[in-house]
């Protein structure tokens, strides 16, 4: 007889009942094993092994060849939700197809990244969509809908949003704390996550490495307080790699890993990504926590249930494995066309004095370090197809009309005995592109040792030297391979591109005696010449002192081709693995010095010089002397052909900047200043003049805006207007609607994006654009009462082509809830609910929940609370504090009260005591509080 089908295998039953049945069949040990990223099989139940996590930020990554779409910031620059949804759909189809032939390919995809691009020096700028939460959530929602699929019950892939929460720095990323005041938390950082989760196509989130308000994100109380209230779906929270161990090892937040693991699980982490494929340590920690009473089986069950919910939605336990199991679309013509369409739509025309589009027959000089490159980043797949700007222009204009100069310095390195570094030929060695076969963890991929090390001879090998800024160099052999150092320490010409978790292809030339030390940055060790080949030395005493012989300066080659052309196209930008990437923030907005020199040389030789920036982030460039400037993110496999088609006018550019391009480093806040309101950050609050504003982007057509109509209803605002293509070519336009509160009681954005739409218009054609915006989108977080509030008064509605290019405007006066003073006489005051501050930071009140405020680095800080209502009068104050130091208080601009301080030092930062003192007030006043020392203030109460 055939055994009956267990209920968890019955697709006719609701998922919840099937999960219940499977949970009842699992032992505690089996459930505990499921908590690691690599959940083992349960053979007695026929359950296969499962892993959380498959990188798929702009294509399936790390698992070999796949379609590579533009970087996420490039997808953000399209401002096109329909396009991004189709990209997500293509990526998820390829994930299914790749899994059919390689079970290592996961369906729980760790993307998209919805961290807001608050600071343009963040090393992972390429991974986000925008500095604006509304645009970020719109693009992220589109991508997750594509990844999820449109079946009402089953998911093609299960997307996890990264990285929860307020994460914009790689510098000390696992130990730094983002101080996030309540308004910034609700109006900015939470908002991008919330609107994406509420759209219904998100399977979970990944906490970030950093701390927020002194508490590690893997213990975030907001996972339960906010995230899991936004949807009825079970959300899976997957830790970031190694982060669970960081709670003890680098953050020292707990003394033992059992405490840390238990705390993370109770906070809402369901899957622990730690120690690679080795689950034994996490399993042992969970078992230890259970034995010590730090966890219960119910805690384990809650996490396992959420993981199983995702697995059921993916169809794993169905007889036919769900409706998406037979997906086989991979590298299809449709996917290739979509990759090119996405790359074309991502191009942003920043400036054009008429030199673009290039006329047929134009003689073009293509120059620059990225002119013949198709760069990948850490989260790219392996290219199947490849198009560089040079190749695209060759194809579009003909090789006879296009000349090329890369602009590298061509050098030879001379040893102390007069010989030169020499690259031995390696024609008989097959190619070995990094990650071509796929790897669950590409950080573990080793450098090649099957090629001969460098040696020396009398003539040497001419190397292409590229300075990527800050003294970081790459050296490339004539066959195109980069000098690299493998685990055995020898220097070889072995890498197709710089890459890897620790880049082994970068060096520094350090002045030393009468020459230079060639220091390998990956190991920090200098290069020496040994009898068996060139390798890194144990220390500086054994280092070779090199002389640098320059055969040709890059500027000379650029000048030569530029002077003979009608138009010069300079392709400049970054290598996504160098000076700005995961683990490394940038230090400046400026282009690397070598690229600035090449740009100046081209401009001096030929005034008709177009700058095309291909980069993962904004730059501060001198655009005033250039007739045209474009920007595109690294555009994936079709980047070159897309850029060429835009330059030729086959496609009118319509990308828009997803973040502010600042004119100078001096315009930037400190990297760790997360207070976008107080720090006047992003287009929302920045009061200076940007190089190019948020939403900016030009076209080869022109567009007229007219007939603005706006009306407020009970719950929504309706806005409509007409856009007409007044140009001579068909083109896309991106219409943008912003709002500004005209008489706010608190600082509000200068303007804030409410809605946008990208559409195509033929010459002379018009369309009516209509938006319906919920009134809740105009509300702000009222810290005085701890909730959202729509303020009554006038609101300016601004319509145009960018945040600064406003074509139409009108003002609506809205009803709302008037401001009310803080009822501090009744309920006291939470310290973190300030209106303004100086010299303070928010820290954790306890290890599980709550905020406190302390002076920054043990100094002096002040807090200001507006409109505090003390009722008929108070005579005493009670302050909840920890640590050592003093507290003073003042009303309005009056004198400070006598300082209050703890009578004895606290045992620790979470050991609070109550300070009681005289304080007389009545009616409504502004309250100032001054903190000194290392005191933590959590709450202020009033009585009497």
Q: Describe it for me?
A:
There is one protein chain. By secondary structure, this protein is of the alpha+beta class. Helices cover 20% and strands 27% of the residues. The chain is built from 18 helices and 45 strands. Strands 12, 15, 16, 19, 20, 21, 22 and 23 form an eight-stranded antiparallel sheet that branches. Helix 12 packs across helix 16 and helix 13 (389-397) packs across helix 16 (639-648). The longest helix is centred in the first third of the chain and has 21 residues, at 81-101. The mean pLDDT is 96.
Question: Could you outline the blueprint of secondary structure elements for this entry?
Answer:
Blueprint: H1 15-25, H2 28-33, E1 38-39, E2 50-51, H3 72-78, H4 81-101, H5 133-148, E3 160-164, E4 177-178, H6 182-198, E5 204-207, E6 211-212, E7 215-216, H7 222-225, E8 236-237, H8 243-249, H9 257-267, H10 280-291, H11 297-313, H12 333-345, E9 348-352, E10 364-367, H13 389-397, E11 402-405, E12 409-414, E13 420-422, E14 455-457, E15 463-467, E16 473-476, E17 482-485, E18 491-495, E19 507-512, E20 515-520, E21 525-530, E22 533-536, E23 545-552, H14 554-562, E24 567-573, H15 593-605, E25 609-614, E26 628-632, H16 639-648, H17 682-685, E27 703-712, E28 716-725, E29 731-741, E30 752-761, E31 766-774, E32 780-782, E33 787-789, E34 793-800, E35 806-814, H18 824-827, E36 829-830, E37 836-838, E38 840-844, E39 851-855, E40 860-869, E41 874-882, E42 885-891, E43 913-921, E44 924-933, E45 936-943
Parallel strand pairs: 3-5, 4-6, 5-8, 10-11, 10-24, 24-25, 25-26
Antiparallel strand pairs: 1-2, 6-7, 9-26, 12-15, 12-23, 13-14, 15-16, 17-18, 19-20, 20-21, 20-23, 21-22, 27-28, 28-31, 29-30, 29-34, 32-33, 34-35, 36-45, 37-40, 38-39, 40-44, 41-43, 41-45, 42-44
């Amino acid at each position: 007889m055939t055994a009956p089908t267990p209920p968890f295998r019955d697709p006719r039953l609701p998922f919840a009942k099937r999960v219940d049945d499977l949970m009842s069949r699992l032992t505690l040990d089996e459930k505990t094993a499921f908590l690691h990223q690599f959940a083992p099989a349960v053979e007695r139940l026929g359950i296969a092994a499962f892993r959380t996590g498959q990188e798929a930020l702009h294509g399936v990554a790390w698992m070999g060849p796949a379609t590579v779409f533009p970087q996420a910031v490039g997808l953000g620059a399209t401002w096109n939700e329909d396009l991004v949804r189709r990209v997500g759909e293509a990526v998820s189809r390829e994930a299914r197809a790749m899994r059919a032939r390689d079970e290592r390919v996961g369906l729980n995809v760790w993307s998209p990244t919805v961290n807001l691009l608050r600071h343009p020096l963040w090393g992972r700028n390429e991974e986000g969509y925008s500095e604006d939460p509304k645009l970020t959530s719109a693009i992220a929602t589109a991508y997750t809908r594509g990844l999820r699929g449109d079946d009402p019950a089953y998911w093609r892939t299960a997307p996890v949003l990264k990285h929860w929460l307020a994460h914009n720095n790689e510098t000390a990323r696992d130990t730094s704390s983002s101080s996030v005041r309540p308004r910034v938390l609700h109006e900015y950082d939470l908002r991008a996550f919330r609107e994406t989760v509420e759209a219904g196509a998100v399977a979970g989130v990944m906490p970030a490495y950093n701390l927020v308000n002194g508490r590690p994100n893997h213990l975030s109380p907001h996972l339960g307080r906010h995230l899991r209230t936004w949807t009825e779906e079970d959300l899976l929270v997957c830790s970031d790699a190694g982060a669970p161990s960081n709670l003890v090892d680098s953050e020292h937040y707990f003394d033992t890993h059992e405490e840390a693991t238990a705390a993370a699980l109770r906070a809402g982490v369901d899957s622990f990504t730690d120690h690679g494929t080795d689950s034994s340590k996490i399993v042992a920690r969970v078992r230890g926590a259970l034995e010590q009473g730090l966890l219960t089986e119910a805690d384990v069950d809650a996490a396992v249930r959420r993981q199983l919910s995702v697995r059921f939605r993916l169809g794993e336990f169905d007889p036919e494995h769900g409706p998406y199991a037979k997906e086989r679309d991979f590298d299809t013509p449709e996917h290739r066309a979509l990759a090119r369409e996405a790359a074309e739509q991502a191009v942003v025309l920043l400036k054009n004095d008429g030199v673009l589009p290039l006329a047929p027959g134009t003689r073009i000089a293509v120059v620059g370090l990225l002119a013949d490159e198709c760069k990948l980043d850490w989260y790219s797949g392996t290219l199947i197809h490849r198009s560089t700007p040079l190749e695209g222009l060759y194809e579009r204009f003909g090789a006879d009309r296009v000349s090329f100069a890369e602009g590298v310095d061509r050098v030879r390195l001379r040893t102390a005995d007069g010989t030169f570094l020499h690259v031995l030929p390696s024609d008989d060695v097959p190619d070995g592109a990094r990650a071509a076969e796929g790897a669950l963890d590409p950080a573990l991929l080793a450098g090649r040792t099957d090629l001969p090390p460098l040696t020396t001879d009398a003539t040497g090998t001419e190397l292409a030297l590229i300075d990527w800024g800050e003294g970081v160099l790459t050296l490339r052999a004539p066959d195109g391979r980069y000098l690299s150092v493998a685990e055995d320490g020898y220097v070889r010409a072995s890498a197709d591109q710089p890459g890897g978790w620790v880049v082994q292809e970068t060096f520094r030339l350090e002045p030393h005696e009468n020459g230079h030390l060639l220091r390998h940055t990956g190991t920090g060790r200098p290069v020496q010449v040994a009898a068996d080949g060139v390798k890194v030395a144990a220390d500086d005493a054994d280092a070779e002192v090199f002389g640098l012989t320059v055969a040709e300066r890059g500027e000379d080659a650029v000048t030569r081709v530029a002077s003979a052309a009608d138009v010069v196209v300079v392709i400049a930008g970054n290598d996504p693995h160098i000076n700005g990437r995961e683990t490394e923030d940038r230090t400046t907005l400026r282009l690397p010095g070598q690229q600035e020199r090449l740009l100046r040389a081209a401009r001096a030789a030929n005034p008709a010089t177009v700058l095309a920036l291909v980069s993962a982030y904004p730059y501060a460039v001198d655009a005033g002397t250039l007739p045209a400037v474009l920007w595109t993110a690294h555009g994936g496999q079709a980047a070159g052909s897309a850029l060429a088609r835009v330059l030729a006018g086959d496609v009118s550019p319509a990308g828009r900047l997803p973040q502010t391009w600042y004119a100078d480093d001096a315009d930037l806040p400190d990297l760790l200043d997360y207070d976008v309101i107080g720090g006047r950050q992003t287009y929302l609050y920045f009061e200076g003049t940007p190089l190019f504003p948020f939403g900016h982007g030009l076209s080869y057509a022109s567009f007229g805006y007219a007939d603005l109509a706006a009306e407020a209803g009970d719950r929504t605002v309706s806005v409509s207007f007409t856009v007409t293509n007044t140009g001579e070519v068909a083109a896309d336009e991106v219409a943008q609607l912003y709002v500004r509160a005209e008489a706010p009681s608190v600082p509000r954005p200068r303007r804030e994006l409410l809605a946008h739409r990208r559409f195509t218009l033929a010459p002379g054609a018009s369309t009516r654009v209509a938006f319906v915006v919920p009134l809740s989108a105009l509300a702000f977080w009222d810290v005085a009462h701890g909730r959202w509030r729509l303020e009554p008064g006038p609101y300016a509605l601004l319509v145009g082509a960018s945040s600064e290019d406003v074509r139409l405007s009108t003002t609506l006066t809205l009803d709302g809830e008037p401001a009310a003073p803080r009822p501090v006489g009744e309920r006291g005051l939470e310290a973190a609910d300030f209106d303004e501050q100086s010299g303070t930071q928010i820290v954790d009140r306890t290890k599980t929940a709550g905020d406190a405020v302390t002076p920054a680095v043990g100094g002096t800080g002040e807090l200001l609370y507006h409109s505090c209502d003390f009722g008929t009068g108070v005579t005493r104050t009670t302050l909840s504090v920890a640590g050592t130091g003093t507290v003073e208080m003042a009303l309005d601009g009056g004198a400070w009260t006598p300082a209050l301080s703890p009578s004895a030092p606290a045992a620790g930062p979470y050991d609070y005591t109550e300070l009681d003192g005289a304080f007389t007030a009545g009616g409504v006043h502004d309250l100032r509080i001054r903190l000194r020392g290392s005191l933590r203030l959590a709450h202020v109460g009033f009585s009497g």
